[in-house]
Amino acid sequence: MRAVIVAVGVAFIVSLFCTPIAIKVFTRLKAGQPIRTDGPAMHQGKKGTPTMGGVVFILATVIAYVAGHLALTTLPDLQIAQVEPTITALVLLGLMVFSGAVGFLDDFLKVRKRNSAGLNKRGKLLGQILVGAVFGVVALYFPSTMTDATGRATNTETVGSTTLSFIRDIDALEVSKVGAVIIFIFVVMAATNGVNLTDGLDGLATGASVMVLAAYALIAFWQYRHWCADPSYTQPYCYSVRDPLEIALIAGAAAGACVGFLWWNTSPARIFMGDTGALGLGGLIAGMAMSTRTILLLPIIGGLFVIITMSVVIQIISFKTTGKRVFRMSPLQHHFELAGWSEVNIVVRFWIIAGIGVAIALGLFYSEFLANMT
């Protein structure tokens, strides 16, 4: 727990104090966010606000991960396999960094072209597929090599699984490794686009992501405390995952980094996360769902992202089939803006919805544990 707390604290401090530096640098580079001309009129006042702020909390998460591992070295009772960096960390941080890189390219093109078009849809889609495929393969083809004092293998789990999962793996829903990679690519695309669509108002996506990442930190730490690979854990009911402490450390670090960034991103925002941050967070959240074996729980944990994404899908289907719009504008947050709600009201109420989804998901996760322990 000490290492997780250290990672959260370091990430928060780095993000809190480095974000103003990023604001000055991106302002000097004239990396202002282009505003859609067909969007709500009140957004035109945000024109020129620096974007690509996601670089800060992605960097803060990586730095905090290193700090967390330094803290682990002060705990001699932990197994060395948990102290050393793992494939799990490579997958999770890789998803965050490289998904963020796809978003950075999109942001860079927006700034350079001075319009909101950025990277074309096909290019962004190919980037997401490539990132999901590469790290999906790594997650499924590199098992753990943890052993006990006698040399007996205590954990041969991979980061990902060939079975679909809800609270844990569902054995009846097993697929091939190729099928599992394809499913993970879909999860990456869904999560990155879900966070990206939510990132439309000051602090909305950042605050919602804090809740989701904090939930995964709790889930992963609970799994660590009830881990099948832990020789000191004697209860029959346990979690077959790989490196849960590593997952908790990274989730906590990312949540802390987002809180530090939110200080400057909340209304009125002095910097936007841009696609750099939105895609980076989405990639990490997808990795969290895979590594904690809770893929089918993700739509509940990220309920706000699902609702906002579905508002876009409904709008497109309705307009293409009937020529009519269901909402004044999609994503959903802009519908309420045009209905006269203030930006702060929308953000706070949507945060409440995000919190409800997280609470329901954590309740389901814990109730499943209680049901099997009684």
TrEMBL record:
Cell cycle in keyword set: yes
BP GO terms, sorted: cell division; cell wall organization; peptidoglycan biosynthetic process; regulation of cell shape
Stored PROSITE patterns: MRAY_1, MRAY_2
Lipid bilayer topology: Multi-pass membrane protein
UniProt GO molecular function: metal ion binding; phospho-N-acetylmuramoyl-pentapeptide-transferase activity; UDP-N-acetylmuramoyl-L-alanyl-D-glutamyl-meso-2,6-diaminopimelyl-D-alanyl-D-alanine:undecaprenyl-phosphate transferase activity
CC annotations in GO: plasma membrane
TM annotation in the entry: 6-27, 48-67, 87-105, 125-142, 178-197, 204-224, 244-264, 296-319, 346-366
Domain of life: Bacteria
Pathway field: Cell wall biogenesis; peptidoglycan biosynthesis
Enzyme class at the top of the EC tree: transferase
Reactions listed under catalytic activity: UDP-N-acetyl-alpha-D-muramoyl-L-alanyl-gamma-D-glutamyl-meso-2,6-diaminopimeloyl-D-alanyl-D-alanine + di-trans,octa-cis-undecaprenyl phosphate = di-trans,octa-cis-undecaprenyl diphospho-N-acetyl-alpha-D-muramoyl-L-alanyl-D-glutamyl-meso-2,6-diaminopimeloyl-D-alanyl-D-alanine + UMP
UniProt-listed CDD domains: GT_MraY
Cofactor needs: Mg(2+)
InterPro entries according to UniProt: Glycosyl_transferase_4, PNAcMuramoyl-5peptid_Trfase, PNAcMuramoyl-5peptid_Trfase_CS
Protein task: Catalyzes the initial step of the lipid cycle reactions in the biosynthesis of the cell wall peptidoglycan: transfers peptidoglycan precursor phospho-MurNAc-pentapeptide from UDP-MurNAc-pentapeptide onto the lipid carrier undecaprenyl phosphate, yielding undecaprenyl-pyrophosphoryl-MurNAc-pentapeptide, known as lipid I.
UniProt name for this protein: Phospho-N-acetylmuramoyl-pentapeptide-transferase
Gene from which the chain derives: mraY
